[in-house]
From TrEMBL:
Gene Ontology cellular-component annotations: actin cytoskeleton; cytoplasmic side of plasma membrane
Residue intervals of the IMD domain: 1-162
Stored PROSITE patterns: IMD (PS51338)
InterPro entries in the cross-refs: AH/BAR_dom_sf, I-BAR_dom, MTSS1/MTSS2
Protein name: IMD domain-containing protein
Pfam families: IMD
One of the record's GO molecular function terms: phospholipid binding
Native organism taxonomy: Eukaryota, Metazoa, Chordata, Craniata, Vertebrata
Organism per entry: Seriola lalandi dorsalis
Length: 162
């Protein structure tokens, strides 16, 4: 096979293998990311439940203070406003937790297995096609060399005969 073609085939095949190896090496990183993301989401859900219970108790204190006479009534109103602000934070935390799960963790988890299968199939297909292409190139290169020799012999005969 021509050295230049051999070099190009090897370079392209090597590049493909490097990309495939990088993909395969990244799987543990993605899986770790998904595991940590799922743990974060779980902890956030727990935090939301505990925060909700705390804010319910806090609101009872505020309601109790609001229901009394004197200066504590104003303190109760301030506590109620503070509780409402914290409910707003709780609501945003719920939205974040839902988005984390539905828009990141769940879609990535469903794609991971598909990515592994596709990458494996790509690797197999590439190996098969690479071998076939190399064999075709070798055959055509060999055929070209044979034809060049025939042409050269024919030219030598013409020179001797002519």
């Amino acid at each position: 096979m021509d050295a230049g073609i051999e070099k190009e085939c090897s370079a392209l095949g090597g590049l493909f293998q490097l990309i495939m190896n990088d993909m395969k090496a990244s799987y543990p990183t993605w899986e770790d990311f998904l595991t940590k993301g799922a743990k974060l989401q779980s902890q956030l859900r727990t935090t939301i439940v505990v925060t909700g219970a705390f804010l319910d108790a806090f609101q009872k204190v505020a309601d109790m203070a609001t229901g009394t006479r004197g200066a504590t009534k104003e303190i109760g109103s301030a506590l109620t406003r503070m509780c409402m602000r914290h409910r707003s934070i709780e609501s945003k935390l719920k939205l974040f937790t839902t988005a984390l799960s539905e828009s990141l963790i769940t879609p990535l988890e469903s794609k991971m297995e598909e990515w592994k299968k596709v990458a494996s199939q790509l690797d197999k297909d590439h190996a098969k096609e690479y071998k076939k292409a190399r064999a075709d190139i070798k055959k055509k290169s060999s055929d070209t060399i044979k034809l060049q020799k025939k042409v050269k012999k024919g030219e030598e005969r013409e020179e001797q005969g002519g």
